[in-house]
Amino acid sequence: MSQVPRHAPPTVAYLILVHRYPEQFKRLFKAIHDPANHYLVHVDKNAGPELESDLRGFLAAYPNAAILEGKRALWGGYSLVDAELRGMAKLLEMDARWDYFINLSGQDFPLATQAQIRGFLEANRGREFIRVLDQASIRPETMGRVLQHVVEQGGRIVDSLVTRLFLKDATPYIGNQWKIVSRKFCDFVCHDPSVDRYKAFYRNTFIADEGFFQTVMMNTAAHGEVVNDDKRMIDWVPDGDIKLRPRTYTTADADALTSSSDLFARKFDAEVDAEILDILEAHLRAQEVANERAPAVELAPVLVA
Q1: How many whole angstroms separate alpha carbon 9 and alpha carbon 11?
Q2: How far is CA 103 from CA 178, 190, 277, in A?
Q3: What topology is assigned to 12-290 in CATH?
């Protein structure tokens, strides 16, 4: 009797954006490392050469890891989108077989083992996990970010005082910069000429990394089912008039973190509370011991496209 062929377990290409805290990054990397995956690290050039040199030395022991050419990254600027696009393109060059792209910052940490993450991705093949909202109808107060023409210049965002219409026959979307998306979408957003107009437009928008990928995905067809969830545990708190920031987790959050169905959390600061990282590392080790291949994390997806 013939058997139905089974997929190989999904593999992941990670892009990690780092601008400080090398020792904390090393703990993160060890927590997410798996020989089957691929890892690319972008070190913000603003951090200086010592940080990159340190991380190059550390990553030399891992043949499935590499450093992306570092460029200056500015919060609110298109340079963050550029780092992601260059990272996706480099990961596509590094290996032809990975299934999913996950971006992290150096202050993130996993809440699930790599086996659990693979199980989750296997159970959700064909889906894209990214926060996405119709910007004009649900977040109209943010439309100035895309309609005001700005320039990233001299380490700051300069408003040209020019307003413009949005792209013809396209709808703006917004979310945040964190995502778990398919190789198919990465290849499309990096290389398809139809995306060029989105790149050109978003180059002169404010906080482009919270809207560019959502807008490309929701206005094109080269992707799977879109799930309005990035699988990140983040506690957003106000930070001035224009943005929210992720609260720094501490040991007081340990129970919530270890019982979460999310795959990752942010942010952490070992200089504020290193013990919470100890707790999460022990939590991951306990899961690995208890389950050689842990069951997939349950999710009731909210499909938006």
Answers
A1: 6
A2: 6, 15, 19
A3: Spore Coat Polysaccharide Biosynthesis Protein SpsA; Chain A (3.90.550)
Residue written as token pair 């990140």? 232
Q: What is the dihedral of CA 67, 264, 103, 144, to 10 degrees?
A: -140
> What is the pLDDT at residue 4?
41
What span, in angstroms and rounded, lies between the C-alpha atoms of 36 and 108?
A: 21
Name the DSSP letter for residue 303.
B
Chain Cα centroid distance, residue 171: 22
Question: 222 near 190, Cβ under 8 Å?
Answer: no
Question: For residue 188, what pLDDT is reported?
Answer: 98
pLDDT at 297: 47
* Cα gap 122→167, rounded to integer Å: 36
Q: Where are the domains of the chain?
A: 12-290
* Residue of 157, 47, 37 lying closest to 98 (CA atoms): 37
